[in-house]
Inverse folding.
């Protein structure tokens, strides 16, 4: 399983690829749409990491 830092690296690489594809093929090209969907899924994956961590923090039992 990938960790959050690996996902961040993948997001950056895929963001750069999306930018390159859009520059060469235009925003309406199918390749650009596909790359955008890949990037969206990586961002969703990263957000799931953040949400899980936040939930773990919220579910901690108070020290009493």
């Amino acid at each position: 399983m990938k960790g959050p830092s690996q996902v961040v690296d993948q997001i950056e690489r895929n963001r750069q690829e999306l930018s390159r594809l859009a520059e060469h093929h235009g925003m309406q090209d199918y390749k650009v749409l596909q790359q955008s969907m890949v990037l969206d899924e990586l961002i969703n994956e990263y957000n799931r990491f953040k949400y899980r961590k936040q939930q773990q923090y919220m579910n901690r039992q108070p020290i009493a």
